[in-house]
Amino acid sequence: MPKKPGLDAAYALGGADDVKALYADWAQTYDSGFVAARGYQLHQAVGEAYAAAGGRGPVLDVGAGTGLVGEVLAAAGIGPVEGTDISAEMLAAADAKGVYARTFVADVTTRLPIEDNHYAGVVSAGTFTLGHLGPAPLAELVRITAPGGLFAIAVNAAHYEAAGFGAFLSGDLAGAITDLSLSAVRIYAEGATHDHADDGGLIVAFRVF
């Protein structure tokens, strides 16, 4: 189990219990000690991509964490936004920002307590990455999204290849999604100098068929 919150620990996670333990410890310092200190900007890219593609509410923020994507969507006038995360402590920090219509704790590797075709879109930043989620939960997220609904999710570029996102999107989800596009983005701001400063991400966008 990771002992100290941080990116290396996050990338080395081995299961749901590890995820909960890490983010319970990290929740209170995540925005200042990681986002601001490391120049993390992936949430901004996700929110802007969703808005630029005409995304609307109700939208679900998957792995909402401390509410970073929710803040971007709120600033763009998009809502209502709901947030889900496996960490109750992270969601408590998100709730304090007042940008979500509601939040709920859930594990998206299982069936969610949401009816079919409920949301007009799904966003996510920092959750489809090493030590976290592979592509399989996308099928459940498609289930709860209405036809025509928009996805804008960030995937760590190395993880996209290693975890088989391309094959899943073109195979398991073939016939369920359309208008798939990939856009390369920086995870961290220009000028960041830490070990992961040059890590790349992909904004995976598509619509539910």
Keywords, separated by commas or semicolons:
7 strands, alpha/beta, 209 residues, globular, 26% strand, 34% helix
Mean pLDDT: 91
Principal-axes shape call = globular
Number of strand segments: 7
Number of helices, counting only DSSP H or I runs of 4 residues or more: 9
| Quaternary form | single chain
Q: Uncertain regions: pLDDT < 50 for 5+ in a row?
A: none
What structural class do the secondary elements suggest?
A: alpha/beta
Strand content: 25-35%
Helix content: 25-40%
Give the biggest beta sheet.
7 strands, mixed
The spatial strand order of the largest sheet comes to 3-2-1-4-5-7-6
Radius of gyration: 16 Å
Our measurement of the CA-to-CA distance between the termini, rounded to an integer number of angstroms, reads 40 Å
**What string gives the helices and strands in order?**
HHHHEHEHEEHEHHEE
Could you characterize what this model shows?
By secondary structure, this protein is an alpha/beta fold. The chain is 34% helix and 26% strand. It is built from nine helices and seven strands, in the order ααααβαβαββαβααββ. Strands 3-2-1-4-5-7-6 form a seven-stranded mixed beta sheet. Strand 1, helix 5 (68-75) and strand 2 form a beta-alpha-beta unit. Helix 4 (42-52) runs parallel beside helix 5. It is globular, with a radius of gyration of 16 Å.
In short:
With 209 residues, the chain is of the alpha/beta class.
List the helices and strands and how they pair.
Elements: H1 7-11, H2 16-26, H3 30-38, H4 42-52, E1 59-62, H5 68-75, E2 81-85, H6 88-95, E3 102-105, E4 119-128, H7 137-143, E5 145-156, H8 157-162, H9 165-170, E6 177-186, E7 200-208
Parallel strand pairs: 1-2, 1-4, 2-3, 4-5
Antiparallel strand pairs: 5-7, 6-7
Helix pairs in contact: 4-5
